[in-house]
Amino acid sequence: MKRPLIEPRFVGRRFEDHTIPLELLRDLAVLEEFVVAVAKWIYVQDNARQRTPKGFTSPLTIALTAVNKGSACPAIAIEYEDPTAGLFPAANEDFFFRAAQAIGNAIDAAEHNEPITQIPPNLLGYFDRFGRGLRDGEILEFFPGNARPARLTKLTRRRLLLASQNEEITEEVTVRGMVPELDQAKMSFELQLPGGRKITSTVDAIHLDTILEAMNGYRNGVKVSVSGIARFDRHERLDSFEMIEDAVIIETNDPLARIDELRLLKAGWLDGIGLVPSKPEFDWLEDFFASHYPASLPAPYIYPMEDGGIQLEWRTANQDMSLEINLVELSGDLHCFNTQTMNEITDVISLGDPHHVQRLIDLVSKAARGEI
Fold it and tell me: Is the entire prediction scored with pTM above 0.85?
């Protein structure tokens, strides 16, 4: 017998084609463990027992049955094979529905900064794995269609974890740095972040050659981008990597690595008068290069400007190009100079307009091929 349990909704750019990336299926798999754990807790509370009876979950399973439209809505059902149930629900089925409701209510409380009392602190620790795959700007609505749909985001997940008993929090992150040390006997290495702080990580055989190459190039400034599951303390300070999923050598002037360095700037960096972009402005710039600037194009050199803006410079086959970006207005003054013909191109680029951004990309691409 099968009954719908819950149909949450993923909202964000990655889900617009009604698809769910495979990496997020790990989160949905954790949801089964989470619901079972909360169902057992509810049973114990209702019956004043220390534990659930043997076979409490044996006839029941939780399964993904479809991905429905509406951004991306995974239809999760409860299934059971209980020959004694007939046309009636299995004896413990109600606890699973109450568990799903309690999880959603906890998310809703966190979203609205209300006391999180629907689930005990130890079970809130499941949010360390459930919702970890969400990125900035993405939402998992637990009760889509409700006036308060209980929206799980990176922010609400952090609030839930801070209310748990977890001393550490894990996140899926990508960080960039250099490798000053590798211990092949222990299969571990140090990653030196911008600013000089070092964190540790284990390394498996798959990524060993990349980490070894980065270590050998340490004195020459070789940088590596490391993605995986990292541990943070309750003050959001990166502590170490729990697992590495990807490691690649990056260019010396990799835009994202350069932005990491610029984030360390302090006000007055230029003889006491230089302004510094705000965190949201740096976040926008990072998203621009991560999501909109093709990796196949030449990477620009990135410099801070006295007024808090950012200047991009490209040196291509026959062009010196620069773009002075006003991060408040998201506009840029473009200047191209052909070093052979002495011709100039000037333009104003609205970086919030996809057509203007595409025009910029086309110009950089043509300049790289020597076509302008």
Answer: no
